[in-house]
Fold each of these.
Amino acid sequence: MPMSNPLEAKATPGPGSSDPPRGKWPKVLPPLSPEQKRINDDFMAYWHEVLPREYHVADRFNHQYVRRCPSPGFRRTLEVGAGLGEHLLYERLTPEQERGYVALDFRETMIERLKARFPRIRACVGDCQTQLDFPDNFFDRILAINVLEHLPDLPRAVEELHRLCDKHSGFLSVVIPCEGGLAYSLARRISAQRIFERRYKRPYKLFIGREHINLPWEIYGELDRRFTLLERTFFPIPIPLEFCNLFIGLTLRPK
């Protein structure tokens, strides 16, 4: 649905929220023990396998939303947090677009698996919260599918995505979860939480408490500093309410 006002829902916490005060960046996460890091890395890779197989309806929305392109003549794409490359199964790239596709993830083990699956695209280990080795305005299209909610230094990431996005015709396509909403919390309880606790015999909050650290209103607020919202879409109910939805799709232009 087209938006007349940019990210008007920004920077207001949900009513009755019990979360601690947010907005101080970067957010500091408690250190992980070697065993905790092993579990977190293992579950992140495992969940990237389970999600498209067992929860394909929601996963399909995530990937199909960002595949829609305001500029069909794009040449260069940056996908941040590319994981195992699941999104590439949804793309229909020309040879030139394939050569210009960069998949970025900070987990080296996942990038190695992505390279094996998709040898014709460029897969890189990197963190979008730091300056990446690409010139200003380099990418026509930047994709962030369920990534921004994870980033402790979200403002720095938004600055970097803005630097890399072509200011003339480029755009940023984002999907975020309705974190904190009723429907999303219930769906997670019967999916990721159930799988995690069965697999590791540990409380899921030890994992998700350091992963989904940014709420939608925080993400809106940071994006609004550098981008103009073109469209916002909710799934599965196409009305702009978070409590009854699972995901939000955003299409933005750099300011």
Amino acid sequence: MKDRGARGETQAGHARVAAAGAVVAACVLAALLLFAAEGGDYRVKARFLNAGQLVQGNHVDIGGTEAGLVEDFEITPDGQAEVEISVDEEYAPLRQGTRAVIRASGLTSPSGRYVQLMLPAEPEAGPEIPDGGVIDVDSTTTQVDLDQFFNIFDRPTRRALQNFYKGGQRQYAGRGDQANAGLKYLSPQLAASTRLFEELRHEPPVLERFLVDSSRFVTALAERRDDLAALIGNLNATTRALGSENEALAEAVGRLPGFMRQANTTYVNLRSTLDALDPFVEASKPVAKRLGPYLDELRPFAREAVPTVRDVSALVRSRGAANDVTELNRTYPPLVDIALDTRAREIDFGSGPKEVGERRGAFAELTQALRDSAPIVAHGRPYTPDLFGWFDDFSHTGAYDALGSFSRVQTYFNAFTVSEGLPDRLLSLPDRGAAFRSIAKLRQTKRCPGAAEEAAGDGSNVWSEEQQEALDCRESDRATGPIE
């Protein structure tokens, strides 16, 4: 029994030794695989601002594929981290333009760092980097940890950022479904924005002009910021006033469709009116050019007329009772009765009033008078220069020079002073009449317009026979020329 027990203990001891040896062998094999792995023979040094928690044995990544290992670290005299990396033979040698970036497998993970190499494109690749060469700091990027990012914010900023996320949580609390439904439209919007920027990329001059014009526009707004602030303030007051009248605004909006339909009909009818106005506009263009000097002269008159118009305005309507034309007009009979009503006309012959017809309103009488006087006015219109010429001569009794006013004196002879060298007392009355008729032009009852002037040599102030017949005038009645 003792021999059998001793033999069993011996076998159990051998089993334990074998198991321990297997464990040691597995650890040694894992260590060899993990720590004793050798990179490629080609090595380069990449300089970073800091090593970003790299350790020896971290792998090197090219295009998502493991392509080498981190071998060693050194600190340069200027305080930069020089990381030595080995690169597998299939990716060696690297070329100038290669960029090295320290990356992490996660934002919050301090471990699992690796070096990513981004190879340059063939046209941009420079010469080869020799074995042991250096990728300078201007071609490397250090991993920025999340806590480093947040450390750039001061305490008030961090608190505001926290409040921002809390506000976002309250904003979307209970509205997740609506937010998800809205996000469905984000993709089409981004696609449309992509097409927009593609179009802008094809037209750089147009985009440049748009940006320049926008800059000028914003600059102009900045120069007029005080006026813009007043505009916004007034707009705020207007909007507030509209909001306080929401019922009236709702009623106006309700009536707007009918108004728009009526306006649409009006605009459609307006097209034919505009077509009919085209000849009028064409005919008005020469007149419009001549109207400019007249308006230039009218401007000083309008400026000087402002006080007069102000006084007339005060005369027409002024504060107080019984002190303006408007209130005076209220004391007159209603204008509609005088202007439009037709009433019976009555005359009192001593035995009481009797109706002798009707009396039309002033407007009806005026219309008839204007209609009847139109031929008379049309006949007298060509004589306008003659009439104004008479006004001009009649209104001037003298003239002025540097010495003051003066008058011209002319001697006129009438029918009773005409003689043929004989004293008036020796010439009989019948003889005076005969003498007057011999030197005067008589019976000029049908003078044409402008007949007081001498006939021009080119005939420009001589009316044709058709015009004379229409005016019922005669060229022979011209006031100048030889005496018949």
Amino acid sequence: MNISKSSKLITPGYTLTFILVTSLFFLWALPNNLNDILIPQFMKSFELSRFEAGLVQSAFYLGYFVFALPAALIMDRFGYKAGLLSGLLIFAAGCFLFWPAALAGKFGFFLGALFIIAAGLAFLETGSNSFISILGDPEKSEQRLNLAQSFNPLGSMTGVLVGTVFIFSGTELSTTGIEEMKALGTYKQYLHDEIMRVGPPYLIIGTIILICAFLIWRAKFPEGDKRAAGSTQNHGKFSELIKYPHFIKGVIAQFFYVGAQVGTWSFLIQYTKDYMNKSEKEAGLYLTISLLAFGIGRFASTAMMKKFEPKKLMGIYSVINIGMVALAIITPGFIGGWALILSSFFMSLMFPTIFALGIKGLGPNTKIGASGIIMAIIGGAIWTPLMGYISDQTHSMALAMIVPLISYIYVCYYAFIGSKPSGPIYDNSDEKIIVAH
């Protein structure tokens, strides 16, 4: 496809399509941040260590890694609409599997359902991010993608609130309380009840996803969004991506960034419980505040991009977050906790900005390149259990925050140095959206 040389933020005639695809950014945030609720819930109901609970994110982000490239290949052949519809249906199927997983009461079944949900989200994120980035003036791709991504934290906050209210029971047993329930023979029923609380929210989300799939199916998408059978025109090649150092460094930057974001949010509840003496429901509200800061940061950063170059703004934010996370490590407690919460404001623009910078100038390789950056989301699968392991071994959640600290250092490098477009840069003439009349 070709991108028109319009100066419009959004290609004329596709505002409704932009809105529908932007709604997906909200929807996929729900399961992403419900994971932050599932981790402490599963630690309680399945009696897991922090390392074992971190496997929730491993199963989830492994799904992204495995399915991002197949998603890109399907969209390269059949178009964005087909890819997004496939993702929504897989996403809904994973949500519905939570009910039999709860009935079975097996941790492994939940991990399987999370893997399937993430497989669907791989389609949605690969397609939505790259589709939004080319749906208008190429010079405004970072601004446009940050605008769409601004609705992602609204979904994140909704997910955490739903989990805090409907999944957390508020019942936290002491060692003595557990022994008393075991003596009375009620402990297994208590654990079963805690597991069953997880099912209903996912059934509701799955139903909403099916409604959204119907709307996407009915929406108008650009002509020329897929190539003819047997055609090689506009077909991206994975092997060509190695010619773009800014893309390779972007994949690495996204790997580090997602590890920092997922790791911070996954263990923020545990951090506030450990160092701020909060209950699980109170800690859930602190996570919600963190996501609110993230959302404000997205909207504020999108506005600031009208005056400041996105990559320089990201560089400044990464320097600030290096300081914030250092405070959380050095001064665990009230100061460290609020430093982690505020770090969400400054991480807000990183994912979409890294994504837009990484695929800039890839031309016909855009969809394949997008899958590579989405595959980098596996950073969340690797860094989160590593943080749990560090915490288990050192008995310090604060020391585990060394992982986000290192991650922001690399993001800082990418922002100021590594993101400069390089290789055989296209002017995006091979990604033109042909407006249907």
Amino acid sequence: MSRALPAALAVAALLLAAPGVAAAQDEPDTLTPEGPATVSSVWRGAVTTEGRGPEVLTGVRVTVGPGGRGGPIRLRVTSGLDPDRATQLGPWVDLPAEPGVYAFPAPALRWDYRGGVIAIDQQLGGHAIVRTSACTPERGQHGDVCQLVSLDVFHDLADGDSGAGTDTAPPERRAGQQLAVTGVFTGDRDRDRVPDAEDRTDLRLTATRTFAADGSSTIRATIANVGPRTADLPILATDAGLRREAWSPACRTEEPTPGLGGSFPLGVQAWDTVSWCPLDALAPGASVTLAGALSSAMAYERVTVNASGDGEDLTPADNLVRLAAQSPVEGRPAVVLRTPGRQRIGRHGLRVAVQTRQAGTLRVTVRIGALRTARVVGVGTGSHRRTLTFRPRLKGTRARTATITARLTARDGTVTRTSSRMAVSR
């Protein structure tokens, strides 16, 4: 069964270095066969189960030895990870006859060395690009290079046929031989066939923290894709101890890779304390806003929020927001309404409790259906709590829900507004 070329070459190299195994690069059978053909390296030995991280094939290096002929060749590559692309053919290129190492581009394919196949189509043949190892049958099935590797030769293959595997028996099989061809691979974490070094998105992060009267706080973070490419793997991260289920909307469930795009600046030492929230892909111009409630322990502490994507960000300066630590007094809202869920309007009227901590003008409005009443009072510096009484007349309206709005205009011109609803009855 065909296996990946890099694994075969690695084992072949070890065998060549072992006693009793000699290279025969200067012998005639180090040349590919004459005439049009497809030549493919085959590996039948063991492979590792863990593999490497996601990769994409970007090219090949061909080592040409002495005594061969130049001529047109093209790559025929197959990856079991890319079934939708099947076998891909590269363009015809001229392989020189002069000895040396030559690099050629390859069709971009998601790659796994355990199942990928790199073959070469030739028109003239006689190319000195074959490595031959002496057979060592005394080492048994798993130690004899001639039982582990071979060079399979095919003729008249269809464009979509890899010429690999046990389904197609080759007309010619050269035991102990391999193509002197190695693949060039690079990381492709989002598996979009674009190398991570080129897959650069431009994410922009904005984040704020709001405080509630009970001492808790909430982070609201917006990630916008302002770049030209889709961000396939956007990730929001914080050092605030937020669990994945604490975010709304929900994070994706898969485990992200720390420092995915190399743009996460909290440092390796912080990875154990960082919470990650992988998100769905963001098209150019799209954005997503998330909210996460902080625990009371972190409500007023310094918090760092970061956005990262597939590769290094085009503008990393706008991927990080540091929310400064605040004292509980500083973090409290300028105005807070404290109203019960239901209140009866009796002879004492409707009571609304308001707490303020900034000097300015406070306007509190109560609406019940079409009825509207308001009070305006001045408030001083410091934390103040007062109860305002309203006497709305419910006669003539069927509405039984009151909407209370408090609007504090501070002396510096800042406006803070909050509202609340409660059921009312006579």
